């Protein structure tokens, strides 16, 4: 009984102590939560203060950067002024000279502009009606550029006739149509000094279109709608086309020295053709004739041997046949060698005959071209003495003669040089094989 009372007392004591511990923990947790909330509020307050301080510092930094930029500009100006103070006198003079040239150039441009604006096609004493007519024509020209319309103009045709035709200016391109002659095409201004006044410029027909191509221009003139051709080169193609010439016309500009150059060229060409025909007709050489002839000596039957030798001799033709004939009819010795050598010299002369004329043509043609050049330049200087150097048309004839003769001389010399080289190579190849055959035949044993 006593033990039960003791146990009960102990259990009650433990329960009371556990209950007390639970109450203490709840109090601690509540204290911690209150401390955390207090710390959070302090943190938020500190962050707000930092944000405000950061904004103030950013404004101050921008102000300082602007101040630094201004100070740098002032420093650069001060440095430039300091550099100018330290420049030498020669540098200052060069800079002043450059500024003076710039000023003079600008003044010239302004003066030219004022002169062009003040320039008028009539005198200051002209009547007001004349000035009013000029102004009206000028305004009509400007209006025609903005709104193109067909206008009656005087057009110089390719055959030299002066006809009245309808002209339409489409930007830089001008076309014409003449219903009376059923012709249409492109025109350009003859008076280049009067480009600013298109209504008073004389026009020239650069190109007359075919009937099917001009139908579009007539449709455009009559109905206001049509398909027309367009020149993207702005009449430059017409000028280039007008300068085209045939080979005969081009060669004819060379003057009198063209005739010997052409004569030498034809002469060299004929010789080259004849020599080429000669070389093509040359028979092929029998290779290793001595060895083949020695093989026939091994034939024991006399009739077969003679037949085989005759068949071998029949294969040889031309110059080689003559060498074989000399070797067979002459005994081995100095006499055979001399006859073979003499025959080889004759063959070489026959192969090289007239080749020197081609070489002479290749050497003389450039010299004749140079002679024509000198003659043309002399003629040019004579014309320059009479008419001066300001007119290119006056001296173009002599220059053309000088250039054409040089060109034709080279045109003749280069092919002649190539032909001579090719034909000489053929002669050397054939004669070398023939000479080798002759050397071998000098030792041929023809004992019967």
UniProtKB/TrEMBL annotation:
Residues 29-109 form a coiled coil. Its main location: membrane. The keyword Signal applies. The lineage of its organism: Bacteria, Pseudomonadati, Pseudomonadota, Gammaproteobacteria, Alteromonadales. This is MotA/TolQ/ExbB proton channel family protein. It is found in: Cell membrane; Membrane. Residues 338-431 form the MotA/TolQ/ExbB proton channel domain. It comes from Colwellia asteriadis. PANTHER family: MOTA_TOLQ_EXBB PROTON CHANNEL DOMAIN-CONTAINING PROTEIN, PROTEIN TOLQ. Belongs to the exbB/tolQ family. It comes from the Bacteria. Residues 1-20 form the signal peptide. The chain crosses the membrane at residues 254-274, 353-378, 398-423. It is a multi-pass membrane protein. It holds the Pfam family MotA_ExbB. The keyword Transmembrane helix applies. Keywords: Cell membrane, Coiled coil, Membrane, Protein transport, Signal, Transmembrane, Transmembrane helix, Transport.
């Amino acid at each position: 009984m006593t033990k039960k009372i003791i146990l009960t007392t102990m259990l009650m004591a433990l329960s009371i102590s556990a209950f007390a511990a639970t109450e203490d923990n709840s109090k601690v947790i509540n204290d911690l939560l209150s401390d955390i909330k207090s710390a959070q509020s302090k943190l938020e307050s500190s962050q707000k203060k930092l944000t405000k301080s950061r904004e103030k510092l950013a404004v101050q930094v921008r102000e300082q950067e602007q101040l630094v930029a201004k100070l740098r500009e002032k420093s650069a100006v001060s440095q430039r002024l300091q550099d100018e103070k330290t420049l030498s006198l020669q540098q200052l003079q060069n800079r002043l000279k450059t500024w003076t040239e710039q000023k003079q150039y600008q003044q010239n441009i302004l003066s030219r502009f004022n002169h062009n604006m003040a320039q008028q096609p009539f005198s200051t004493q002209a009547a007001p009606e004349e000035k009013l007519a000029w102004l009206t024509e000028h305004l009509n020209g400007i209006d025609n550029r903005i709104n193109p319309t067909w206008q009656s103009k005087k057009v110089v045709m390719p055959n030299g006739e002066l006809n009245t035709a309808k002209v339409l200016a489409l930007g830089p391109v001008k076309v014409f149509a003449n219903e009376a002659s059923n012709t249409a095409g492109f025109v350009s201004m003859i008076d280049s000094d009067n480009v600013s006044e298109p209504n008073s410029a004389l026009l020239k027909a650069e190109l007359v279109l075919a009937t099917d191509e001009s139908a579009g221009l007539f449709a455009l003139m009559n109905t206001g709608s049509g398909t027309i051709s367009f020149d993207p080169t702005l009449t430059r193609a017409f000028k280039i086309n007008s300068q085209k010439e045939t080979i005969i016309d081009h060669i004819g500009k060379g003057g009198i020295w063209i005739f010997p150059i052409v004569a030498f060229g034809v002469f060299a060409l004929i010789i080259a053709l004849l020599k080429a025909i000669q070389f093509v007709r040359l028979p092929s050489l029998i290779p290793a004739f001595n060895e083949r002839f020695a093989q026939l000596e091994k034939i024991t039957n006399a009739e077969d041997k003679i037949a085989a030798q005759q068949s071998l001799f029949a294969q040889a033709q031309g110059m080689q046949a003559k060498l074989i004939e000399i070797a067979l009819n002459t005994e081995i010795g100095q006499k055979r060698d001399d006859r073979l050598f003499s025959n080889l010299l004759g063959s070489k002369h026959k192969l090289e005959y007239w080749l020197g004329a081609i070489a002479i043509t290749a050497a003389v043609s450039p010299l004749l071209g140079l002679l024509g050049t000198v003659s043309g330049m002399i003629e040019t200087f004579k014309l320059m003495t009479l008419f001066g150097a300001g007119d290119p048309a006056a001296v173009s004839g002599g220059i053309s003669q000088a250039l054409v003769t040089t060109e034709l001389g080279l045109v003749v010399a280069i092919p002649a040089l190539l032909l001579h080289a090719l034909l000489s190579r053929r002669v050397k190849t054939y004669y070398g094989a023939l000479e080798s055959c002759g050397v071998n035949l000098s030792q041929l044993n023809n004992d019967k």
